[in-house]
């Protein structure tokens, strides 16, 4: 069995986003993870239009070549880790649009989250899990949350310390999430898709 491929999707596109710091830290944590192959996917690089198709690609092929290119990219992955910023108790508009641009390509694949914000992005992750259920993904219980004092320690809004300053608080969550992600990615990799 080939190694499952996991996209680590940065879900914020703002110029001043914080996402790059935890995303790079996470990629460093999983660099030697032998059971999964991780690739960083930045929504800034995807040139996605606002969703404007006749219907979801479950029902009708997408007409915009940028949406089709996104669907092809997603189809090559066996699971997803979303780097989630919490905006007004939810996910970013850019991430919601990226989710809406595909359907079949998300189906029967696990999704996990690395989230940040005042309460660790927990409300955004809950919104993301609801969307994931509709897209027939397998939302994982375990997630990594950077919130409260830890967020202010590493955020430019606070001390802007390196991620290493808080990583001892996060490693248990990373380990739990990776164990669950590995299990589901292997189980679902060769499962028939709808």
Automatic annotation (TrEMBL):
GO CC term, one of those recorded: cytosol
GO molecular function, one term: FMN binding
Superkingdom of origin: Bacteria
Entry-linked InterPro entries: Flavoprotein-like_sf, FMN_Rdtase-like_dom, NAD(P)H-dep_reductase
Pfam family, one: FMN_red
Gene3D superfamilies attached to this UniProt entry: 3.40.50.360
Record domain NADPH-dependent FMN reductase-like: where: 4-147
Stored SUPFAM superfamilies: Flavoproteins
Annotated protein name in UniProt: NAD(P)H-dependent oxidoreductase
Origin species: Paracoccus gahaiensis
Lineage, uppermost ranks: Bacteria, Pseudomonadati, Pseudomonadota, Alphaproteobacteria, Rhodobacterales
């Amino acid at each position: 069995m080939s190694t499952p491929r996991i996209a680590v999707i940065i879900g914020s596109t703002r110029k001043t986003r914080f996402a790059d710091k935890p995303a790079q830290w996470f990629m460093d944590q999983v660099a030697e993870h032998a059971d999964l192959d991780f690739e960083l996917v930045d929504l800034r690089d995807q040139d996605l239009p606002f969703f404007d198709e006749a219907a979801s690609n479950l029902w009708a092929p997408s007409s915009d070549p940028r949406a089709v290119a996104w669907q092809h990219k997603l189809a090559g992955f066996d699971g997803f880790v979303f780097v989630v910023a919490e905006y007004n108790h939810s996910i970013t508009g850019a991430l919601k649009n990226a989710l809406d641009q595909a359907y079949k390509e998300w189906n029967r694949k696990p999704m996990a989250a690395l989230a940040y914000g005042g309460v660790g992005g927990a409300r955004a992750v809950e919104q993301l899990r609801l969307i994931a259920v509709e897209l027939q993904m397998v939302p994982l219980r375990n997630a990594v949350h950077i919130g409260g004092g830890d967020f202010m320690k590493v955020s430019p809004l606070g001390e802007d310390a390196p991620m290493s300053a808080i990583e001892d608080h996060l490693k248990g969550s990373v380990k739990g999430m990776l164990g669950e992600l590995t299990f589901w990615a292997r189980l679902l990799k060769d499962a028939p898709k709808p």
